Amino acid sequence: MKSKCLWVLYKKEMADHLKSRRFFIILMLVVITGFSAIYAAAYGISSAVEQENNSFVFLRLFTTSGSSIPSFVAFISFLGPLVGLSLGFDSINGEVNRGSLSRLLAQPIPRDTVINGKFLAGVSVITLMMLSMGLAIGGLGIIMIGIPPTSDEILRILAFLIFSIFYISLWLAISQLFSLLLRQTATSALACIAVWLFLSVFIGLLSGVIADVLYPADKVETVEAVLRNSKTELMINRISPSTVYNEAVITMLNPGVRTLGFITQDQLVGAIPGTLPFFQSLLLTWPHLVSLIAATMICFAVSYVYFMKQEVRM
Amino acid sequence: MDDKRVVIKTQGLTKKYKDLIAVNNLDLEIYEGEIFGLLGPNGAGKTTTILMLLGLTEPTGGFAQINGLDTIKETIRVKETVGYLPDHVGFYDDMTGRENLRFIGRLNGLEKNIEDRIDNLLERVKLTNVGDKKVGTYSRGMKQRLGIADTLMKDPKVIILDEPTLGLDPEGINDMLGLIVELARKDKRTVLISSHLLHQVQKICDRVGIFVGGELLAIGPIDTLGEKVFKDHDLTLELSVSPVDDKLISLIRSINDDVKIRTDESKIFVDSKEDIRKELTKVLCDNDYKLLFLKQSGRDLDDIYSQYFCAKEGVKK
């Protein structure tokens, strides 16, 4: 009975998302920017491939930025949140304002199926979107650069897509939380955008300032001071899911990345330049994946508890 | 009355918010097949009571049962048998009326015969011809009727309607009230209506409860209700007599010393503890006064209305 209710709600939410004009607009935005990024990257790569014999060409499709267009990864890291936020910012308060939530909860269904169904539908839409975009880009890439991906590259692209799904789902969970805490859909949309702008743009500006205040490194430039300053800055930046996502995705898509954070010169002594195998890259980014999932779970858990305790009043 | 089965029962039901007692120690019994009106001004705690009956909010004290099931502990089983029409009911505007009903039907586990039931219900609430139009295009009255169809999808034994006539035009109100009477009389369902529109709802209720400030002031069939509510109040007789002179006043006083008498240009108002109509008319007749008009006031529904429904809201504003 319970799973059947969940299925009914899930189907309705999926239909709502896929039919909504809002989702269509956001999807178009992402698709157009994404494909233009891929096109620009492919254009740059096909000339580069002829000059140097480089492995992992296919992966560079995602990470290379064209002359004036940022890379595909950069676009997803910036616009991905917008997809998640647009799917969730009115999920609960929209129903409250329409007056359909009390009608819904008067039905013999466990209350949590409502919020579970909504979240699952959102995650499914995100998954659908990322997987289909990944496949489309892969196909386009093969046509444009003429080199098929190796199995290692396919694994890395899959990992990238999975990271992206969790990353966007985190923003979905954040927006769903706002849709519970704030009564007006416009307010929750604004709050979501504020959080998004802060975490993807302003935190980068602030972190440097804060690090300089805490560990000033401009007067006495000892190694420790500089290192501590940079580490603080990085840690502050890592509060933002965008930073976490970017680090992880760059590591996955660029096998040349061997460490994250800072290393001193003497740590580098004796290291042979080379690429990491897939599982070593995955190992390097495992904390990132776990923290993205954990942050999503925390947001969802807070909404869940709040929703279960909330009094449903018009 | 005694052999009737109790369907909705609350005992000591209390809901407190931080600095407000929304519902105070409510004891209520509603019998099978009756239309019960929970009447009171805005903010009296009617909706809070209904939410507690549906298990949508937890009481701070006491309990509520529907068909013997506790509304908090067995909320899902309660909701299987209770249809609820919230005030300002909302539908998914971009779905048709039929799709909205189908969605609710599926949530109630209906699979077979779901289309037949939708057709029947749409016909019953006279929406057959707009069933395939989007709900966004419906008028308020149509939405409210669709709401009734919506509550009936699960074929409930108990129906709770929160302000069902609010915002409807006179014709819509009559349609709605007609539907509600049909639900109780023809289908033998138990109906609980909450409303602040006493005059609209009273004519269809078997019993009403007057609910003010979280307390149930009186409960019973509507015609005996006035006396219960005002049993401590004075009776007021409004009369006009010709001629009016000092002798008349002293004659009235001779019936009962306790009476208070006021006069204005055309009428005399007599406040008394007891009903003195019989004595009064006799005295007037015996003394050759002509009685033009006599009305007892202070104990009928209009007085309940003005005392609680109008005055309280006026004070709050």
Could you characterize what this model shows?
- The complex is a heterodimer of chains A (314) and B (317).
- Chain A is an all-alpha fold and 314 residues long.
- Chain A has 13 helices and no strands.
- Chain B has 317 residues and is of the alpha/beta class.
- Chain B has two domains: 224 residues, Rossmann fold (3-Layer(aba) Sandwich), CATH 3.40.50; 63 residues, Alpha-Beta Plaits (2-Layer Sandwich), CATH 3.30.70.100.
- In chain B, helix 3 crosses helix 4 and helix 9 packs across helix 10.
- The two termini of chain B are 40 Å apart.
- The chains are: A mainly alpha (314), B alpha/beta (317).
- At the A-B interface, helix 1, helix 5 and helix 6 of A face helix 2, strand 6 and helix 3 of B.
Task: Kindly summarize this structure in a few lines.
The complex is a heterodimer of chains A (314) and B (317). With 314 residues, chain A is mostly helical. Chain A has helices at 2-19, 21-51, 57-63, 72-88, 93-98, 100-105, 111-145, 151-181, 185-214, 223-237, 241-253, 265-268, 278-309.
Strand content of chain A: under 5%
Beta-strand level of the residues of chain B, as a percent range? 25-35%
Per DSSP E runs of 2 or more residues, the count of β-strands of chain A stands at 0
Task: Please bin the fraction of helical residues of chain B.
Answer: 25-40%
The gyration radius over C-alpha positions of chain B equals 24 Å
Largest sheet of chain B: 6 strands, mixed
Terminal CA distance of chain A reads: 27 Å
Described by strand count, sense and barrel closure, the largest sheet of chain A is: none
What is the topological layout?
The complex is a heterodimer of chains A (314) and B (317).
Chain A: H1 2-19, H2 21-51, H3 57-63, H4 72-88, H5 93-98, H6 100-105, H7 111-145, H8 151-181, H9 185-214, H10 223-237, H11 241-253, H12 265-268, H13 278-309
Chain B: E1 6-17, E2 20-31, E3 35-39, H1 46-53, E4 61-66, E5 69-70, H2 75-81, E6 82-85, H3 97-107, H4 114-124, H5 140-152, E7 158-162, H6 170-185, E8 190-195, H7 198-201, E9 207-212, E10 215-220, H8 222-229, E11 235-242, H9 246-255, E12 260-263, E13 268-272, H10 277-286, E14 290-297, H11 301-316
Parallel strand pairs in B: 3-8, 3-9, 6-7, 7-8
Antiparallel strand pairs in B: 1-2, 1-4, 4-5, 9-10, 11-13, 11-14, 12-13
Helix pairs in contact in B: 3-4, 4-5, 5-6, 9-10
